[in-house]
Amino acid sequence: MDKNIIKNRYDSLQERVALACQRCGRNPSELRTIVVTKTHPVETAQAVIDAGIKDIAENRVQEIEAKMPHLKGDFNMHLIGHLQTNKVNKVVPLVSWIQSVDSVRLVEKIENSAKDVQSKIKVLVQVKTSEEETKSGCNEQECLEIAQRISQSKCLEFCGLMTIGPLDATEAVTRNAFAGLRTLAEQCRELTPHIELSMGMSSDFEWAIAEGSTMIRVGTLLLGQREYPVNPVS
Fold first, then answer.
1. What is the pLDDT of residue 101?
2. Reduced to 3 states, what is the DSSP secondary structure of residue 232?
3. What is the domain extent for residue 92?
4. Which pLDDT does position 223 carry in this prediction?
5. What pLDDT is stored for residue 193 in this prediction?
6. Is residue 112 included in any domain, yes or no?
7. CB neighbours of residue 25 within 10 Å
8. Residue 150's closest CA among 114, 116, 113, 124?
9. DSSP class of 130
10. Cβ pair 7, 171 in contact under 8 A
11. How many domains is the chain built from?
12. Mean pLDDT throughout 198-226?
């Protein structure tokens, strides 16, 4: 995909972000847009970077492994999908952010792998805020314990919380899930001066902004439907 097309779509998205912020009395500068490039080819991911977008994200470790050697420029790679402990060593040297930490055991694996990484890995705790069985994430009771463990690490930086809104739910139900994450974040406030709330995707980011999101994760609106399930590098 051409970088100019991506840039035009991104600018249109930022207009919607600004309007959503205006409706709830927020400043658009508080929002960071993460462009999700999962299952798109490396050329598309590079076009996103060439369009001046600083943050891209992948769901799967194998796609990060395949794409990162081919990507050039000033950008941050975020892992937003479930991370298995046996893949930690592969992904830690390749990412700036891991948004999907959901257990103390996983924290310890990442910490051990990150000892040789020059800069701290920025970490979000993924919380399950809906009843859907397919969703990953810790529960509210586990969240504070995990956050405290991250904040004690010398090579990890606790930055906030992440959740995935319920699929095909009403505005009220979705916003309630996002509001729950915002409330939970208040219990973590003493661990970091600024709490990131990563919530909201292509279909619900405006509701997430109204509930305090500081990071939205958008793919389909900018890049269209996913192109294929595997083999990310052509």
1. 98
2. coil
3. 3-223
4. 94
5. 84
6. yes
7. 7
8. 124
9. S
10. no
11. 1
12. 95
Q: How far apart are CA 33 and CA 210, in angstroms?
A: 15
Single pTM value for the model: 0.93
**Domain of 13: which CATH number?**
3.20.20.10
- Give the pLDDT score at 231: 47
Residue 233 lies in a domain: no
Please report whether residue 122 resides in a domain.
Answer: yes
Give me the percent of the chain exceeding a pLDDT of 70: 96
**Residue 199 gets which letter from DSSP?**
-
Residue 3, pLDDT above cutoff 50: yes
Strands 55-58 and 121-126: unpaired
Q: Encoding tokens for residue 42?
A: 């490396």
Where would I find the beta strands (DSSP E) of 28-178?
A: 32-36, 55-58, 76-79, 97-101, 121-126, 156-162
Query: How far does CA 11 lie from the centroid of its chain?
Result: 20
- Residue whose token pair is 């979000």: 124
Q: What are the counts of helices (DSSP H) followed by strands (DSSP E) for the chain? A: 9, 8
What does each C-alpha distance from 230 to 80, 172, 226 come to in angstroms?
A: 17, 35, 10
Closest CA to 103 of 132, 129, 130, 128: 128
Whether 229 is in a domain gets the answer: no
d(C-alpha 102, C-alpha 83), whole Å: 9
